[in-house]
């Protein structure tokens, strides 16, 4: 039985391998890949300006990402004098247990997950600092919450899968002509409560 082809507008996804997670576990590389995914193709110079770094470092780290297939040159935009880069995929995923037999890759995954937590805190603080200047509708629509559930691993996996499907449905139904549409950063986290001091 042949696998059905994904719809033409389906997000391009990559299941990260050991080499890719080791390369991705770097602050500038994470930011470069994220910026290319959100803002689209760009040159190293444009990315350096946007991320407040230098073009040499940006070029070097783009090449590192390209070596493992996470970014690629955009041939439709490049010239002999200027290279344009784009994300090779829309989504990266992995199972943490994929790397149980590779201590370096496991450490890289732990760093990547920690970076996501830092990004969540940073984005939440930026929103809270700026929220007063946004409309009532936006302030009432945005927010955070938490809930404690009693779940086993199978039901937790089912919950995460269902939430991911919901997020993908909203992504696929996005209407670019919606007059007040903005980029909204959605974080999804669910893990067992661990008691005690660290």
Please provide a written account of the structure.
The protein is globular. The longest helix has 28 residues. It has a three-stranded antiparallel sheet with strand order 2-4-3. The protein has a two-stranded parallel ribbon with strand order 1-5. It has a domain of 130 residues: Arc Repressor Mutant, subunit A. The protein is mostly helical and 198 residues long. It contains seven helices and five strands. The relative contact order is 0.11. The N terminus is likely disordered.
- Briefly, what CATH class of the domain at 13-142? Mainly Alpha
For the terminal residues, how far apart are their CA atoms? Answer: 50 Å
Label the CATH architecture of the domain at 13-142: Orthogonal Bundle
Multimeric organization: single chain
CATH topology descriptor of the domain at 13-142: Arc Repressor Mutant, subunit A
How does the major sheet shape up? 3 strands, antiparallel
- Biggest sheet: strand arrangement: 2-4-3
Q: Give the beta-strand count.
A: 5
Helix content class: 40-55%
Query: Considering the protein shown, what is the CATH homologous superfamily of the domain at 13-142?
Result: Winged helix-like DNA-binding domain superfamily/Winged helix DNA-binding domain
CA-based shape: globular
Task: Name the average pLDDT.
Answer: 88
Kindly provide the radius of gyration, computed on alpha-carbon positions and rounded to a whole number of angstroms.
Answer: 19 Å
Low-pLDDT stretches are 1-7
């Amino acid at each position: 039985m042949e696998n059905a082809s994904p719809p033409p507008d389906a997000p391009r996804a990559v299941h990260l391998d050991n080499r890719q997670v080791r390369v991705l576990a770097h602050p500038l590389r994470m930011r470069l890949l994220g910026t290319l995914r959100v803002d689209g193709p760009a040159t190293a110079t444009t990315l350096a300006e946007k991320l407040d770094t230098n073009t040499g470092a940006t070029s070097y780290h783009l090449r590192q990402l390209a070596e493992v297939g996470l970014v690629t040159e955009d041939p439709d935009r490049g010239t002999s004098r200027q290279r344009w880069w784009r994300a090779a995929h829309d989504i990266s995923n992995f199972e943490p247990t994929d790397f149980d037999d590779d201590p370096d890759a496991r450490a890289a995954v732990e760093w990547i997950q920690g970076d996501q937590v830092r990004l969540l805190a940073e984005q939440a603080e930026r929103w809270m600092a700026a929220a007063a200047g946004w409309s009532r509708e936006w302030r009432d629509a945005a927010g955070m919450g938490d809930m404690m559930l009693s779940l086993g691993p199978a039901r937790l996996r089912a919950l995460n899968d269902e939430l991911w499907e919901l997020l993908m449905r909203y992504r696929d139904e996005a209407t670019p002509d919606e007059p007040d549409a903005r980029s909204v950063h959605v974080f999804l986290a669910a893990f067992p409560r661990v008691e005690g001091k660290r």
